[in-house]
């Protein structure tokens, strides 16, 4: 926490925040790690939910390194690399296991998929934003269901703005999706912050749009970055909104 606060304090003075936006998947919403464990067990791979969670956190860093400007983070090639990275960190290198995991993920819990668990820190973080009189919002590269998922998980009641890339037709890191959220919130870029889990998509996208970015790094795997980091969304909010 001290590192996050000091990093934020080092930023140049800015106007008071009027809005904080969040990514959805891997930020406010967690993946169903036990379901992933069950799938792998069915193929003879004995792993724990904690191991899968750590593998995913490491995989997102590797995935980010290969994301290129102008290429959708929601495309099938990106999904394949992401799954392959997760399995690799679990010690599973079989290409057939990658294809089986992709097929399982595509068929699991449609249309929501594996991101169907509220992060334990999500509701307290959103409640803190609202208690300070700020707009709370989501900007997500998603498949058109994110608003209904957030509502089903009990998070929608704490949100004023939800922007789903499939609904608005533009994805992060494009500055236009951030502009849509700012317009809906009635906030200027300098009055807003954004919390997300991918550096090239969330941090660089938010920064280019003029928002203050915070990178979620729950496992401490991102290494030194030129932006504030936080282990949880609640820690990010506490750093952005000091007493």
How would you concisely characterize the structure shown here?
This protein has 243 residues and is of the alpha/beta class. The protein has eleven helices and eight strands.
Textual characterization of the structure:
The protein has 243 residues and is an alpha/beta fold. It has 2 domains: 2-29 and 116-240, Rossmann fold; 33-108. Helices cover 47% and strands 14% of the residues. It has helices spanning 2-9, 33-42, 49-66, 76-89, 95-107, 122-131, 146-152, 165-168, 175-185, 199-208, 233-240, and strands spanning 19-22, 29-31, 115-118, 135-140, 161-164, 192-196, 212-216, 229-230. The strands form 2 sheets. A 6-stranded parallel β-sheet has the order 5-4-1-6-7-8, with helices on both faces. Helix 3 packs across helix 4 (76-89) and helix 4 crosses helix 5. The longest helix has 18 residues, at 49-66. It is globular and about 55 Å long. 41% of the residues are buried. The model has no long low-confidence stretch (mean pLDDT 93).
